[in-house]
Each structure stands twice: as structure tokens, then as C-alpha cells.
Amino acid sequence: xxxxxxxxxxxxxxxxxxxxxxxxxxxxxxxxxxxxxxxxxxxxxxxxxxxxxxxxxxxxxxxxxxxxxxxxxxxxxxxxxxxxxxxxxxxxxxxxxxxxxxxxxxxxxxxxxxxxxxxxxxxxxxxxxxxxxxxxxxxxxxxxxxxxxxxxxxxxxxxxxxxxxxxxxxxxxxxxxxxxxxxxxxxxxxxxxxxxxxxxxxxxxxxxxxxxxxxxxxxxxxxxxxxxxxxxxxxxxxxxxxxxxxxxxxxxxxxxxxxxxxxxxxxxxxxxxxxxxxxxxxxxxxxxxxxxxxxxxxxxxxxxxxxxxxxxxxxxxxxxx
Length: 321
Ligand code: UT7
Description:
The structure is a single chain. The chain has 321 residues and is α/β, with parallel strands linked by helices. The protein folds into two domains: 2-168, Thiolase/Chalcone synthase (Peroxisomal Thiolase, Chain A, domain 1, 3-Layer(aba) Sandwich); 174-320, 3-Layer(aba) Sandwich (Peroxisomal Thiolase, Chain A, domain 1), CATH 3.40.47.10. 31% of the residues lie in helices and 24% in strands. The protein contains nine helices and 13 strands. The strands form four sheets. A five-stranded mixed beta sheet has the order 1-7-6-4-5, sandwiched between helices. It has a four-stranded mixed beta sheet with strand order 8-13-12-11, with helices on both faces. The longest helix is centred in the last third of the chain and has 23 residues, at 213-235. The chain is globular. The structure holds oxa(dethia)-CoA.
């Protein structure tokens, strides 16, 4: 038995920061940012935290699925930006939404986080250890961004997305791939703000997101098509069988390059980074929720999801909607 997604939800903070707003604080322009990345705006948390955003997205996903919080067996929450070390964000969400029968844990896999919790949720269901799993990707990246670094601050945004995965005897298609390369970890880093011996961490630039953009770009456009081909081969499917390719929303040029390498047009590669920027683990479930609520997803369609990011980590999966 495997799981099928039966409901989705998302939440983004109200506050919007446009490219023109950023041009007032760093040397950049709307033209540069939108041409090089596809991002025009991003939503930034004010009072919101990873937990509050995750709980709102989760509540909406349960409502969309028509499932009560008590039915949830497990909450898997992908995040790299929780403001607390413990209790885990998943346990705080469990309390917020009243999922009194659920276990919960956080998963740290950066922008590959949602793909990772999807795969874990499927493994729990396949092993018979859970029937209903709440998958969440939630990030508050604005707190880790160096707002004086134009190479990174233009990219990121805050938000959360969630999906309910439930055991379904009629679901059959599922293949996954997950990879990491710790040797390339240096290309995208952010040190903990709990460093031993450190005094004023607000001045320690290693505690902000630092990135070799070109290296990460090259990695993404090489590894994502490989992972997509890997899962399609395992599933004995071709790209023509896939209705939608839901890729992590990092940069529109990465998505265009992946589509080109798979010899496809952009029609089946939806994107929303124009509105939200790169929300790391939240980007795929926010996109999935938008696609679901706008009626673009039909039961039986085959979808590919692919995440990639810090670690380095990457992977893909193919499944039936
Ligand atoms: O979730 C995964 C996380 N990360 C990613 O996926 C990021 C992947 N990488 C990227 O998206 C791109 O590398 C960036 C958007 C970060 C940068 O684009 P790029 O085309 O690789 O630009 P670059 O770093 O090569 O910089 C080109 C020029 C440089 O100026 P010079 O040396 O040519 O004079 C930069 O200083 O653009 C300059 N630049 C900017 N100019 C205006 C860098 N950032 C900006 C900026 N505004 N915000």
C-alpha cells in the first residue's frame, strides 16, 4: 500500500517586499533581479514564525482533504529556519492544530526538504507504520538573510505549504530518488547562531546565508534532469507521460534549463517564484497547493517533483495525483 495526496494547503505572510523596495537597500534593480531570477516580489514574515505559518498551511490542507486533525498519525515538517531547537516545530504544530494522535519530527534537508518528507511519509505508509501523514514545508528565510548582500537577499522569501498523504489501495505509481554530496556543502552554507565562544553573532557573517550562486546553478541544472530521468526509468515512464513537473522554485533560469535538457517546453513546468521568491522547503508544497486549488490537477495524472539545494541535496519522485 502506498499513499496518495488527498489535500493541500499553504500560507504566506501578508507583508510584500518588491524588487524596487530592495533596490532602496542594496545596489540592484527590478530589471536585474527579474531577468536573472524571475523573482519580482517575496512575502516576509512579521510576527509569523515557522510554526505559525506551518500550522496555518496544515489546517488548510486538512480542511481541503476533509480529514480531522485526530486522524493524523504522523507530522513530518521540513525546515531549516525554525526559531527554536526544541521542541520541534512539528510538535508545536501538532499542538496548534490539535493532532492529538500524531507523532511529529522535523527534517533538515534545505530546499530538498519537502521531497524528503514526501518520501519518508510514503515509506511509513508502505511499511504499515502510518495511515495518514501530514507533510509540511515551512521556512522563515528572511531571518537568515544578510540584507546587505545583494547576491542572496534578492532570492529568498518566507511561507509554508502542506499536503495530507493517506494510504490508498488504488494508488500504484511511485518511484523516488534522493542524493547528497557533502563534499560540495561549502557552496551554500549558514552557520548556527549558537556557536560556542561567539560574542556578537549579528556581526558574524557566517551565521547568514552564504552562497556561490554560479556553483549552485551549475549543480542544479545538471543533477535535476539526471534525477528526473532516474525516477522515470525506474517507473518505466517517459517524459511524455508526465502532466506536470513541479520543481523547487529557486530561479526561473534553472527551470528553463532543466526543461531544455529534458527536451521539453515550459508549458508543463509551472512556476510561482515571481510572487514568492525561493521559499526553500516550502516552495514545492505552495506550488502544489496553487495547482490543486486552481483545478489544474486531475486524478490519474502523473506528476514529477524535484528538489535541490544545500547539502548539497537533490532528488525527484514520480507519482499519481
Ligand atoms: O535553493 C537553491 C538555492 N540557490 C540557488 O538556486 C541559486 C542559484 N544561482 C543563481 O540563481 C544565480 O547564480 C544568482 C541569481 C544568485 C546570480 O546570478 P548570476 O547570473 O550567476 O550572476 P553572478 O553572480 O555571476 O553576477 C553577475 C554580476 C556581477 O557583477 P560583475 O562582477 O559582472 O561586475 C555581480 O556582482 O551581477 C552582479 N550582481 C548583481 N547586480 C545587481 C550580483 N547580484 C546582483 C544584484 N543586482 N542583486
